[in-house]
Hints:
The chain is an alpha/beta fold. Strand 8, helix 8 and strand 9 form a beta-alpha-beta unit. The chain is elongated and about 75 Å long. The termini are close together.
Amino acid sequence: MPYASGSELSDAYARARDRGYGFVASNVTEPNILTGLVEGAERAASDLVLQVKRDSAAFAGRGEPATGLEILGTTARALGRDADVGVFLNVDHVPADDRAFLEACVESGIPSSLMVDASHEPFEENVARTREAVELVEAHDEEMLVEAELGMIKGVEGGVETTEAYYTDPEEAVEFVDRTGCDLLAISIGTEHGVSKGRDLELRPDIARDVGDALADHGLDTPLVVHGSSGLSDTQVQELLSTGVCKLNKNTRYQYEFARTACDFYHDHESAIRPPAGVDDDRQGFFADSDWSPDKTTFTPFRVCEEVRERIAEVMVGVAELAGSAGQSQFQ
Length: 332
C-alpha cells in the first residue's frame, strides 16, 4: 500500500487506543534495520511506525541531516509502497532550537509525524518552542502530526546526556497540551534512553494513567508516548500499554541486534574471510601469491545483511505481538 500519511497515523493511534493495544515505534539507524522492520511488520500483519533521529539522518547524509532524511525517507516510502501493511515515519527528537532541520523536515513532506524536543527547557520555554513547531507544521501540512515531550528521562539521546529525571505532572500536562496544540505527548514515567535494565528502573505506570485521565477530564483526546523502552520486561511493557499509552519507542535493542548478529556471523565465518597464520595479509593483490583465498559467498555484504534483516524481522514480530499490534493492520 502507499506510504501512509499523518492523518492515517492518527487513525492508527485512535484504533489502537480503542482496541487496547499499542505500537512499538522503531528507530532506524541503518538501512538494513529498516528493511528488516518492514519484513517483520508484514509477517506480524502490524502497521509499522518507523523513526529517524537527527543524528541518524546526519550520518546517512554525510553530515547533512536534511539529505539523510531524504535518503532514509525515500527508502521508507519505496518499501511502504510495496508492503501490505501501513508504514509511517516519525522524525524523533528534533531539537526545538534547530530551526533549519525542523523546517527541512516539514518542507520535505516526508514525515507522517515529527517529535519536537524542548523538554530540557523550563516549562514556559517548552510551551513556546513547541507551539512554534506546531504552527510551522500547520502552515505547511495539516496532516503531519506533532509529538512533544513534558518531563525528562535519564540517559543519552542524540549525543546529549541527561543525568537527572523528573516525572510528568498531570496538571502541567493538561496545560501544556492545551496551550501547544500538540497531537501526541511523550511523558516521563521512569524509563531511560540507551542501555538499561527494567529491574533497575523506578517505573511509575500510574503516572501515565493519571496523565491520561487528567487530559480526558479536560476534553483533550491526546495519545501518550513513552520513550526508552528497550530495557523493559514483557510484563512492564504490557503494564504500560494497559494505562492507555499507545506508543513505546525502541532504538537501542535494534542497534544491539544489528551488532550482535554481524559479530556472530563474522566470528563463525572468520576462516573464510581472514587469512590463516603464515599467509601474508595481501589485500591489494587479493592473495594472488597464496594458495588460500577468501570465500566470496561468505564475505559479500549480502550474506551478513541477510542475517541482520532476518534477525530484525524476528524481533519486530515479537515486539508487535507483545504490544498487541500484530494482526491489527488497518490496511488489511
